[in-house]
Amino acid sequence: MAKLYWNSFFIKKDIKINGMAQMIVIYKTPENKEVFDKHYFEVHIPMAKKLPGLRKYEVSESPIISTAGDRQTYQIGTLYFDSLEDMNAAIASAQGKACAADRRILVPDDEKIQIYLFDTIEI
Questions:
Q1: What is the DSSP code (8-state) at residue 65?
Q2: pTM (2 d.p.)
Q3: Cβ distance 47 to 95 under 8 Å?
Q4: Which of 1, 15, 58, 94 matches a 20 to 30 Å C-alpha distance to 68?
């Protein structure tokens, strides 16, 4: 049974309805935008698009507007998979390990990146 959480209440459902798993990657403004963009679009994205089970890859367009005042966000990437299980399998694959290693080249400082993995449901 799938487990769904909504406003801290635990709800059990027999199936996950119209949901997907997502990986949201938030990149803070790099020191050199041109170098970041070249690597991100010419190396990292083509590599990530080969992840097994990846359904869709989206990137943000500028400007990124924050209603909470954060002005450090430079780029947001969203990867879609059918389930967290599929995402975990992709991350554990040889391609996933290569992407993780490349991410360390793209953004070596963990303080300059946030990565969130989660299932979604349509409500």
A1: P
A2: 0.82
A3: yes
A4: 58
Closest CA to 51 of 18, 79, 25, 22: 79
> Tokens in use for 64?
């990124």
Q: Which of 59, 55, 67, 68 is nearest to 27 (CA)?
A: 59
Q: Which residues on adjacent β-strands are paired with residue 28? A: 73
Q: How far apart are CA 106 and CA 38, in angstroms?
A: 10
- If you search the block for the tokens 């990565």, which residue do you land on? 115
β 56-59/113-119 pair status:
unpaired
pLDDT tens digits for range 6-43? 444 444 444 445 689 999 999 999 999 999 999 999 99
